[in-house]
Amino acid sequence: MTDQPIVMDDTDVIEIPLARREGEEERVLAWRESELKRAGYSADDAFELAIHPDVDLHAAIDLISRGCPSVTAVRILL
Fold first, then answer.
1. pTM, entire model
2. What are the residue boundaries of the structural domains of the chain, listed by start?
3. Nearest 5 degrees, angle CA 13-CA 14-CA 19?
């Protein structure tokens, strides 16, 4: 084992936070998609809505719970 210091450049410092943020974004996307499917959206519609962070999850679920067909709800939300 040597006593030489570890040298890091700017990309080494930036990669860790970016990787964590990407992992967090994937978890949020999967959670949103799961909640939308549980509310009654098809897998395709749930994914389409989940990838749009500007779509209010509560509004999307509320539309379905009030009897709005998912096809119509997707058109309203997007």
1. 0.71
2. 12-77
3. 115
